[in-house]
Specification:
mainly alpha; two-stranded antiparallel sheet
Length: 478
């Protein structure tokens, strides 16, 4: 292997072989050849002088692409499509006169891109739902485990570990909805000609517009699409790319949010991502267990988020029927969006399949904060026992500040409960304190919400992907 030139880390370190293949030269140029064959078949069926032997000759040469010859042709012609037309024609001499008949470069270029987008969306959807399934199993397992909730990154009312996980899942379900909508509504460019008017095909069929319409439909069906875009310029509207990259950018924000939460929880030693037996956390600090998977996801997710502006600016600057300044940008933006998303989701699946929870640490953190949170419950219990609310409130306020000083100024544990027990004022409710301070009484309907969410929101989506969800253990690439 030559190590003297640049290679994308998306292909050498992160993205799957399946996603890489979709954006490979082999898939791209063999798809060009398939599209030329589809066009020839449809033209033959509609009466143009094309023979089955010409089509058979092309079909026998779909995969054996002479890449060096194509590169030499492109260097001479400065035109990638014509370079491949020439190479294909040399391999199929009898079919040479009818290859690319009536078509413009965007017939193969844009239609191939749409096929890649369709197949890549299918792959991403499977990845998203696989993560949803794994996280749902985790949420159900820990649906009743109390944990500190946080607002402003400050301890707030209790929630449960499983309930927090449903917040991540809900975002992923929104991403699944967005991606599935795009996949279901993606269309084919079809055969539209140089500026989208189909003039060249109308000429081929001697002015018979009905045959031109039928040609568009036939090729669209052969390519596996139900519909084509009714109008195009030379290209399909780059608004399609904007919508797709927007959805992937939105997925990036979901991944970043979830993995940021995991990194914060790992810092608190409450929850940890998987850590392999031979994994090294730091070259200098052997004890460290850095959340490198979550950090990788955040890094890739930021790249996904930023690519949105590329797609939007490319669409905004397509003058009239098209300009070519979209080409180089789209080669980067579309591939990197999908490859980054693929890498993110594979890493996220690896994380979700092996999240480690430390209940004792979580319990200790709850006990440090729960006495303050239970103050209102203590007041209510005292009122029920005949006490005066205002007097009780003042008592709790003073004791809370004293306990807070112990924590903040002296680094000691929260001793509010001991102070309450030592104050004779609270003797009427001392027998209830254990119940008042039971963490499970502070989580509301969190556990039930997890169950309801699973039944009402998650299961219907999982059913759409029966047989496609990856449940086997996923290994991290590097």
């Amino acid at each position: 292997m030559d190590h003297s030139g640049y290679r994308s880390p998306l292909s050498t370190r992160y993205a799957s072989k399946e996603m890489q293949f979709l954006f490979s030269d082999q898939f791209k140029f063999s798809t060009w050849r398939r599209l030329w064959i589809m066009l020839a078949k449809a033209e033959m069926e509609l009466g143009l002088p094309i023979t089955q032997s010409q089509i058979t000759e092309m079909e026998s040469n779909i995969e054996n692409i002479d890449f060096p010859a194509a590169a030499a042709e492109e260097k001479a012609t400065r035109h990638d499509v014509m370079a491949h037309v020439h190479v294909f024609a040399k391999q199929c001499p009898s079919a040479a006169p009818i290859i690319h008949l009536g078509a413009t470069s965007c017939y193969v270029g844009d239609n191939t891109d749409l096929i890649i987008l369709r197949d890549a969306l299918d792959l991403l959807l499977t990845r998203v739902v696989s993560v949803v399934k794994s996280l749902t199993d985790f949420a159900m397992e820990y649906r009743d485990l109390p944990t500190l909730g946080f607002t402003h990154l400050q301890p707030a009312q209790l929630t449960t570990v499983g309930k927090r996980c449903t917040l991540w899942i809900q975002d992923l379900l929104m991403d699944e909805r967005n991606l599935r909508f795009l996949r279901d509504n993606l269309r084919f460019r079809g055969v539209k000609g140089t500026t989208g008017t189909q003039a060249s095909f109308l000429e081929l069929f001697n002015g018979d517009g009905s045959k031109v319409k039928e040609l568009d439909k036939k090729v669209t069906k052969l390519a596996g699409f139900e519909r084509s875009y009714p109008v195009t310029g030379q290209t399909y509207s780059r608004k399609v790319d904007v919508d797709v990259v927007n959805a992937i950018s939105s997925l990036g924000s979901t991944v970043h949010k979830m993995c940021s939460d995991l990194r914060l929880l790992a810092s608190m030693k409450e929850v940890e991502e998987p850590f392999e037996a031979t994994q090294i956390g730091s070259s200098a600090m052997p004890y460290k267990r850095n959340p490198m998977r979550s950090e990788r996801c955040c890094a890739l997710a930021r790249h996904m988020i930023t690519l949105q502006s590329n797609a939007a600016n490319t669409h905004a600057t397509q003058w009239m029927e098209r300009t070519l300044d979209d080409s180089a940008n789209r080669r980067l933006t579309l591939s990197e969006s999908f490859l980054s998303a693929d890498a993110c989701l594979l890493t996220l699946l690896n994380i979700s399949q092996g999240i480690v929870v430390y209940p004792k640490v979580i319990e200790r953190h709850i006990q440090q904060e729960l006495p303050f949170m239970a103050a209102e419950n203590v007041i209510m219990a005292m009122v029920k026992a005949g006490g005066d609310r205002q007097v009780c409130h003042e008592k709790i306020r003073v004791l809370s500040h004293e306990a807070g000083a112990q924590v903040k100024q002296h680094g000691k544990d929260n001793d509010l409960v001991e102070r309450i027990k030592a104050d004779k004022y609270f003797e009427p409710i001392l027998g209830q304190l254990e119940h008042i301070l039971d963490a499970k009484t502070f989580t509301g309907r969190a556990g039930e919400q997890v169950v309801d969410f699973n039944e009402e929101e998650v299961k219907p989506v999982l059913e759409l992907y029966a047989g496609r969800i990856q449940t086997s253990s996923v290994k991290l690439v590097i």
